[in-house]
Amino acid sequence: MTDDVLQPEAAGDDLAFEGALRPASLAEFVGQQKVRGQLELLLNAATLQNRAPDHILLAGPPGLGKTTLAMIVAHEGNRPLRMTSGPAIQHAGDLAAVLSSLVPGEVLFIDEIHRMARSAEEMLYLAMEDFRVDIMVGKGAGATSIPLELAPFTLVGATTRAGLLPNPLRDRFGFTAHLEFYETDELHRVLERAAALIGLAIGSDALTEIAGRSRGTPRIANRLLRRVRDYALVHGGAADHSAVRAALELYDVDEHGLDRLDRAVLSAIVERFGGGPVGLSTLAVTVGEEAETIEAVVEPFLVRTGLVTRSPRGRIATARAWTHLGLSPQAGPQPGLIDDL
Ligand SMILES: Nc1ncnc2c1ncn2[C@@H]1O[C@H](COP(=O)(O)OP(=O)(O)OP(=O)(O)O)[C@@H](O)[C@H]1O
Ligand SMILES: [Mg+2]
């Protein structure tokens, strides 16, 4: 249960809760100012020209608002939305079925697009470019391909691993939005909005404390807010600063928002590998987590907070990381010494 609170991925009763808190328009969408401006221009231009907006790729760690933005793209243009995901597209035929049933102007959202089958990817190239697919009929020498015209649509792809997308696919998006972790004041606004929506009376200092510990991630901020509400409810007190501290301590979120896995990775680099460099797969095995999770979820946050840097030879802990763990950086990168710590 503790883990659910800390995971940036959606879990358990998040889904219903998230639905209720999801901003429905760009104006309500907090932060990501640059991406918001870029999207606004792209959508407005399409409206003025009375055509479907260009295909959009949304890249970034979990919980930063990719699904939310895809829904906004549809909502802002008053377009129908079809949602599917990479893992659901195991064959080119699965994709052909979806594409051929789209209505003109529809927004097709493919979540985790990097996990789509290769054969479907190739079909998608043509569909994105020419709004056409070639359906193969028959096998071997007698096989023929029948072209099928598609209604013009807008593809919105989301991925936590933009690096895994083949170049031809990446190049066919008219716009790629790289979502960044949120600043504390932006998360404060996300929380203010969420508190109002769930009818929770909570002070600004309490919200700042939650915002600072939310790993730069709106999904985590909203989830911690819920835990604070629970805490206040169960203890019959106000959702104030001390309730926040007590609730977050209970759930093992430290003052910089590092969660259990972040800390495990950090101390593995520092204590087991003398500060690094250490390769991704070695690190993953050491902390008992999937390499993909470390790369897509943990590492971006540790890099962004300046605790870890990447080098061609692997991940390296910075001086800040040593200090964060209460160690002296000078004892530094000499593996022999570190073993004795
Ligand atoms: N900019 C924002 N302003 C307000 N709330 C936000 C914002 N971004 C995200 N949220 C909140 O965080 C929740 C999670 O966002 P969302 O589901 O869009 O993330 P995601 O990037 O699709 O994550 P995943 O990669 O796990 O699918 C939303 O339900 C919404 O409540
Ligand atoms: Mg999503």
TrEMBL record:
Annotated GO CC locations: cytoplasm; Holliday junction resolvase complex
EC numbers: 3.6.4.-
Organism domain of life: Bacteria
Region forming the signal peptide: none
GO biological process: DNA recombination; DNA repair
InterPro entries xrefs: AAA+_ATPase, AAA_lid_4, DNA_helicase_Holl-junc_RuvB, P-loop_NTPase, RuvB-like_N, RuvB_wg_C, WH-like_DNA-bd_sf, WH_DNA-bd_sf
Region Head domain (RuvB-H), residue ranges: 255-341
Alphabetized SUPFAM superfamilies for the sequence: P-loop containing nucleoside triphosphate hydrolases, Winged helix' DNA-binding domain
Record: residues binding DNA: R310, R315
Reactions accelerated catalytically: ATP + H2O = ADP + phosphate + H(+)
Pfam families: AAA_lid_4, RuvB_N, WHD_RuvB
Enzyme class: hydrolase
Keyword Transport: no
Segments forming domain AAA+ ATPase: 52-183
Notes concerning its domains: Has 3 domains, the large (RuvB-L) and small ATPase (RuvB-S) domains and the C-terminal head (RuvB-H) domain. The head domain binds DNA, while the ATPase domains jointly bind ATP, ADP or are empty depending on the state of the subunit in the translocation cycle. During a single DNA translocation step the structure of each domain remains the same, but their relative positions change.
Entry's family note: Belongs to the RuvB family.
Function: The RuvA-RuvB-RuvC complex processes Holliday junction (HJ) DNA during genetic recombination and DNA repair, while the RuvA-RuvB complex plays an important role in the rescue of blocked DNA replication forks via replication fork reversal (RFR). RuvA specifically binds to HJ cruciform DNA, conferring on it an open structure. The RuvB hexamer acts as an ATP-dependent pump, pulling dsDNA into and through the RuvAB complex. RuvB forms 2 homohexamers on either side of HJ DNA bound by 1 or 2 RuvA tetramers; 4 subunits per hexamer contact DNA at a time.
Subunit structure: Homohexamer. Forms an RuvA(8)-RuvB(12)-Holliday junction (HJ) complex. HJ DNA is sandwiched between 2 RuvA tetramers; dsDNA enters through RuvA and exits via RuvB. An RuvB hexamer assembles on each DNA strand where it exits the tetramer. Each RuvB hexamer is contacted by two RuvA subunits (via domain III) on 2 adjacent RuvB subunits; this complex drives branch migration. In the full resolvosome a probable DNA-RuvA(4)-RuvB(12)-RuvC(2) complex forms which resolves the HJ.
HAMAP family: DNA_HJ_migration_RuvB
Protein name, as recorded: Holliday junction branch migration complex subunit RuvB
Gene name of this polypeptide: ruvB
